[in-house]
Write a structure and sequence with these properties.
heterodimer; A: 164 residues; alpha+beta; Glutaredoxin; four-stranded mixed beta sheet; 7 helices; 4 strands; 11% strand; B: 446 residues; Rossmann fold; de novo design (two linked rop proteins); globular
Chain lengths: 164, 446
């Protein structure tokens, strides 16, 4: 399967891709799919069809094998997203700690609903399930960073900081 | 008595030098130089250690099922997909003391004869993956991983694999599918992973906490581990506490302390937050039955309930619950049980993989009906409808997600039926912001 696109990782990332594929036995390179989709999303923010086709070509698998996986796992964005994707935990324990009020404030502050992106392309809000940080809730995540013990004031501070 | 967290607050314990200064990697030396793989397995069997991911199946017995055909590689896969709401103990342990898990992985892989092992971590914990990868590199540099470890002739490579945000991948066969680069659809069993697991090779899948405990068992012996705890609940357990206690967080407890002591003593949770009363507890992660205050503190026989597999399940589902993963969610009298149950029903609806109709459709129905009740549009027959749907999911699916989805709904209605009925009968009261039903005469009511 030839890549039909101009999408390509920088040389350094391609080296990392090689090292990841080497973690698995010969012929089991498909196992590298999730790690490489994470790299792709870090590079291009979301998994467009072109990006997924490119990932398929790197692993020598069919594009549909990438599509079926990317659509199953909720971490992969299948639509364009903003610069900062705020993924807040809506599950029980975070709600017990006042999560609903905090997240309502977040939406009001940014003027968008869950699943939407601000007009300036800075922020996207997504609702996610339990982030395994229940004792430190309410919690949201932006890329790799966890923001915990959230309050309305803390949310304002974080948005001010990232919105600069 | 601390086994996993004794040194967890030592500064820089995440570095191998500090970890080794506090006794780290002695189990690797002992196992690889002085013990055979079978001897390690024997100690783990003697310890009585039970799977800490939730099922509580004896670890040593699971290991002994591993098929060992000649010339076929065997694998150890660590389940670090921790996604059960209320559970964050593995997150805490790996982030603060990654070498505790890595040391356990080496000892356990040696016992199983695995030369390649994987730690499957939920993808959201990418920062923890970086911590683990750094620690693994340190272990390679010190000669605890790689070829001919400590001159023993034993080789082991260890890798970390990220998930992609799917609760179902905590189910061991879904995890293996995911590790093969596929959708996380659970497999039919048999064959069990011990016979046909990762890439159809014999595989053991164990939880982070289970694997981490094996180094202490190698160092101190299975009997010493079995001496901690009570009956068949041996050793210590990490309990992750969330909700309305004064001190939420992760605690390592010796199994056997009373629930009352755990919730109210200063040593552990410190009691319910100021001015409030205990209403209910979900003791082992969101899928186990919720219990009202009086039943979580005291069994139906009037005994003080204790933090063990047996005591928590005393009374079956009628009056008991399960230790599960140790995700301990505490609720005070301000909690609306209907809303709380709805959040979990939505969770399971979202996380159902869609393979089995009872789960795919049933979780959607429960979510929808609970949403209707919560928003003041409940119908008289809805409570019985929920019970009926839950019953029809339970036991009728390939994997335990169906059970996990049906139990919380069934238990909430079992113990708080009046609260659901109040929502249906008094929608004008129930939909007011912050409205919570107060059961007349209950210990948590005003």
């Amino acid at each position: 399967m030839e890549a039909k696109t101009q999408v390509a990782f920088p040389a350094e990332t391609l080296e990392l891709v090689k090292r990841i594929i080497a973690r698995y036995p010969e012929g089991k390179q498909k196992s590298a799919l999730l790690p490489i989709l994470h790299l792709a999303q870090a590079e291009w923010r979301w998994c467009s069809p072109e990006v997924m086709d490119y990932v398929a070509s790197l692993l020598n698998i069919q594009p549909v094998e990438v599509y079926e996986v990317a659509t199953f796992y909720t971490m992969f964005h299948l639509e364009p997203v903003g610069e900062h994707v705020i993924e807040y935990c809506r599950t029980g324990p975070c709600c017990l700690m006042g999560g609903v009020e905090v997240y309502d404030h977040l939406k009001k502050r940014l003027g968008i609903e869950t699943g939407e992106t601000t007009a300036d392309g800075k922020f996207t809000i997504k609702e996610v399930e339990c982030l395994a940080a229940c004792g430190w809730g309410p919690v949201f995540q932006i890329r790799e960073k966890y923001y915990m013990h959230l309050t309305k004031e803390k949310v304002d501070q974080i948005i001010d900081e990232l919105g600069k | 008595m601390k086994i996993l967290t004794e040194h967890i607050d030592v500064p820089n314990i995440e570095t191998i030098d500090v970890f080794m200064k506090h006794g780290g990697y002695q189990a690797v030396t002992k196992a690889l130089k002085n013990m055979s793989p079978d001897e390690v397995t024997e100690e783990v069997k003697k310890s009585g250690l039970r799977g800490r991911g939730g099922a509580g199946f004896p670890v040593g017995m699971k290991w002994s099922f591993l098929a060992k055909p000649e010339g076929v590689p065997r694998y150890l896969v660590c389940n670090a997909d921790e996604s059960e709401p209320g559970t964050f103990k593995d997150h805490y342990l790996m982030a603060k003391s990654p070498h505790t898990l890595i040391e356990g992985m080496i000892v356990s892989s040696f016992a199983l004869g695995a030369n390649t092992s994987y730690i499957y971590v939920r993808g959201e914990l990418m920062y923890v993956i970086h911590i683990l990868e750094k620690a693994i590199q340190e272990a390679y540099d010190k000669g605890f991983l790689g070829k001919n470890i400590l001159g023993s002739g034993y080789d082991l490579d260890l890798y970390v694999q990220p998930g992609g945000g799917a609760y179902i991948c905590g189910e061991e066969t879904a995890l293996l599918e995911s590790l093969e680069g596929k959708r996380g659809n659970p497999r039919n069993k048999p064959p069990f992973p011990a016979v046909k697991g990762l890439w159809q090779c014999p595989t053991v899948v164990n939880n982070v906490e289970s694997i981490s405990a094996t180094s202490w068992i190698v160092n101190n012996g299975g009997d010493a581990y079995a001496a901690i705890g009570e009956g068949r609940s041996t050793g210590t357990k990490l309990i992750s506490v969330s909700g309305h206690v004064k001190k939420p967080g992760v605690y390592e407890i010796p199994l056997g302390i009373t629930v009352e002591d755990f919730i109210f003593s200063e040593e552990w949770c410190g009691g319910i937050r100021d001015g409030h009363k205990l209403k209910a507890v979900i003791a082992g992660g969101s899928s186990v039955p919720i219990l009202p205050a009086e039943l979580i503190l005291t069994t139906a026989n009037g005994e003080k309930r204790r933090m063990t597999y047996e005591s928590l399940s005393d009374g079956g589902f009628a009056t008991g619950t399960m230790l599960g993963s140790g995700g301990f969610i505490v609720m005070d009298e301000t909690t609306c049980i209907v809303h709380n149950t709805l959040t979990f029903a939505s969770f399971y609806h979202h996380e159902s993989c869609g393979q089995c109709s009872p789960c795919r459709e049933g979780t959607g129905w429960m979510d929808k009906v609970l949403h209707r009740i919560e928003s003041g549009e409940g119908r008289k027959e809805d409570v019985d409808l929920l019970v009926d749907v839950a019953k029809k999911i339970e036991g009728n699916t390939i994997c335990p997600l169906g059970d996990a989805a049906s139990w919380p709904v069934a238990a909430a209605i079992r113990h708080f039926r009046d609260e659901f009925e109040w929502h249906i009968e008094h929608p004008e009261l129930a939909t007011k912001p912050g409205a919570v039903y107060m059961r007349p005469g209950a210990s948590w009511s005003n």
